[in-house]
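Supplementary Note 3. Input sequence used for the single-chain structure prediction.
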Amino acid sequence: MEGPLDLRTVVVTALKSVMSEPPIDDDSASLPAQGLTSVETLSVVVTVEDELGIAIPDELLAPANFSSVGRIVALLEPLVADTA
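The predicted structure, written as discrete structure tokens, is reproduced below.
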């Protein structure tokens, strides 16, 4: 990936690839309320891990960490910083 890493763009792109409707443009909006299923969440995890070259530790794979775009970005920030 060239230029500064935009985690929000990575997350939204991953969500758009699995959700039938794109997520609304509100980083605090509930993704499950927008129809994100647990299976789709796993697909987002795999996509984000591949895109960023990271592994999300099992202990962080709690549904609450994937409840909104903002929560996912907050989860990823320290993981990406550790690889920089």
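Helices lie at 7-18, 38-52, 69-83. DSSP finds three helices and no strands in the chain.
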